[in-house]
Predict the 3D structure of the following.
Amino acid sequence: MSRVIGIDLGTTNSCVAVIDGGKPVVIPNAGGYKTSPSMFAISQDGKRLVGHLAKRQAITNARNTVSASKRLIGRRFDSEEVQKSMELSPFEIVRGPNDDPRVIIGGKTFTCAEIAGIILREMKHVAEEYLGEPVTDAVITVPAHFNDTQRQSTKDAGKIAGLNVLRIINEPTAAALAYGIGREVEEKIAVYDLGGGTFDISIVELGDGVVEVLATSGDTFLGGEDFDRRLVDHILKEFEAREGIDLRGDAMALQRLKDAAEKAKCDLSSVQTTELNLPFIANDENGPRHLNLEIDRETLESLAADVVQRTTQCVEQCLADAELTKDLIDHVILVGGQTRMPLVQKAVADYFGKRPHRGVNPDEVVAIGACIQGSVLTSHEQDLLLLDVTPLSLGIATFDGHFAELIHRNSTVPVMKAHVFTTTRSDQSAVKIRVLQGESDKAEDNDLLGEFVLSNIPPAPKGEPEIEVSFDIDANGIVSVSARDLATNGEQSITVSARGTLDDEEIEQIMREHEEYELPQEK
Amino acid sequence: MSGQPPAQLEGCLERWIEAGLVSLDAGEESEAVVDPGAIDTDLDIDVELQERILSFDRQLDRPYHELLGVAADADSKTIKRAYFKLSKDFHPDRYFRREIGDYAERLDRVFKKIALAYELLMDPTTRAEIAKSYRVGSSPQSAKVATAVKPGDAPHKLSKREMLEKLRRQVKIPDEILFERKRRARELFGSARVLRHQENWNEAASCIRLAIAFDPWTDDYKEAFGEVLANLAQMRAEKLIEQAMDTSDGRSQKEALNLLEEAIMYRPSDPEIQHRAAELSMAGDDLEQAREYAERAVELEPEGAVYHLTLSKVLRRLGLRQQAQSVVQTARKLDPSNPEIQEELRRLRQRPGRSSGGMI
Ligand SMILES: Nc1ncnc2c1ncn2[C@@H]1O[C@H](COP(=O)(O)OP(=O)(O)OP(=O)(O)O)[C@@H](O)[C@H]1O
Ligand SMILES: [Mg+2]
């Protein structure tokens, strides 16, 4: 049987791992890097580039280079997040036929699942190259609080990449698995995952080879990029004050600046001051201008203090959900590149009153956990069981626009819950069941996963008929909902397949199209 | 189970059902029958495990602590250990991609029940309720969950109201809990009053709904709830009417009418809603319906000139010119200076032109 790979499909970087010789190994790409930038580009001469190759030409070809597409996947075009991304992205984002955001580069339109698929295919290649055998089975990770649509789109991306996605698991959960394997003690841990684009926090309990997720929370729009943006804004202002030139309209200058800011941010994790040097950043009647700026750690920390603050609010929420207090946490694990920042480490240490656990690599631990879960599922050699939870509450809309919750967030899957509802009008012959996911009391503020109608309810005064609605999530995370009239036993049900995702035919067509492009490999 | 308000939204009833305080079944329940031929040696699952799964599946109605194999007063650490151990036997992931036939379904059922037992026993509140229910004397078998009812063999179900009644008789809620519940309900109702004042019907409904969940015994709350729902329905109807009027979109007109119907249910004696419904029906060319509404509006408010006017228009379009005339006369008496009424009067005096298609 072929092996299962684990892929951490990150906002900024992706990473692939596999169990080799009984141990999880992170697979380096042909260039020797253990992670690849989650970037895709079409070069001036029409070549398709992924990973480092795409990143290398991003500055000179900003408009045709897609980065951070994970921030768009599975969202609606009108959502705040997509609108925010549009302001920040040098590439063009347009509305797709399913109200989904799509990306135009090199004159061609791509769905977000397609972009993710291209990156996943690259990771698949990396693994095949290393193993010298074809790979199809994969476990892919997503941020813990990704909703159903985002998860299903990620699954679609896997299919586009020619992968058979055994499971989508949560990034912090994967990290906990990687940490927990082989540990015999009973303990409670907090996984704090601050990556490029998202923040996740999970509270996990270990014992007897079981990894039980107690609660999980986070923010899909909070990550290292927010730190970069703060710094970029700061530099733009400084430059304008000094030179009287606003660089905001210049895509190439902005891209250079973004790059330099990120690099400066990373440098400041190990040194106190760093210098930014961008010659010929602008031009006006007085000749070329250069950007030369010294930045110290303190400045960066004051610019980003509130971003770090926001993460601790999520941590509070998560602890409350787990019904624990912070002193009951035995270990804190840091995941994600941004946790290398001393301010972040200090904030976490101060909050929990203990130093974070060292000894896991924050860039690799998620992919490692994913491949462990792959092997746990298929080989039965590992005596390990993951009890995962559903990250968002599920329920239906009531007639007055409220959200009636059936499955509370953080319920262990598989799970099934049922409630009895009734009609609001006399002789009402049909009820519409609108399946929602989210945490708001108001139906309209939650995500609509699907809807169906239960009809043929016999005439009766309002409030009399009893409609039992049941929700079921199976071990694979598939949600099905059914409604049954208890008087007649008439039943209607759906398996929720999120709106805006691709159907099989679309996926196949995309796959055919992609076969025409063999991507150049990392040198 | 963390104390999120939406969790309580559908009322404590469901909690009680889950806690085994109430059973959805009114009558006797039948013992599940085991199929002795269910053991299958061809499957990729130990025979011994098959037997365990079958026996578990057969006895899912045992009290929760027995399901987990712990003492009734076990501490949470013991409960957790037992749950972890059982999970390693019964979680579906342990059989991923294995050929296990019918056992997939059984495992799914068994694991969900174990997880539910764990969830309920780990929560001190539900746990106390469960313990009490056993003391109350109903057989431990009544620790039955709504979700465990299989389709096809649904026994007689009690309506929610009946169930509440039964519950009130059966279970004595300790005074301190009752007191606390009523206090919360009062608080919520207080906020609802403020919200109603601000005409924030959505939020008000939400608060009262919660109040009723906490205290289903006070009828005032239910009355207020009806009132708020009526306002909500009317508000939404107004919005839809606006939409319907300027899009002349048949669908939203229909929906608006549905909503108005709803509003009427809550405020049967409000002539204004009837009048709106009449106008809307007329716009949708459903004249018979429009007539009914308009007549009711006039009946409810005989002094309403505009209502008479609308009724007259409907009657005229139905070809009942004489009746229309007498109605519009009344309208003129009530409001002599209204130009629309005068216009309607003029129209009715004119002979209908041939092209207008009216009846003679
Ligand atoms: N030494 C460092 N100091 C500060 N930040 C760093 C450092 N190294 C990397 N980062 C930041 O970490 C982020 C990338 O982290 P990571 O690769 O874990 O994210 P990701 O997995 O791609 O994203 P996500 O998990 O949010 O989808 C970038 O914003 C990067 O700038
Ligand atoms: Mg990550």
Summary: Residues A 8, 10, 171, 195, 336, 366 surround magnesium ion (ligand 2) (CB under 6 Å). The CA atoms of residues 92 and 104 of chain A lie 5 Å apart. The radius of gyration of chain A is 24 Å.
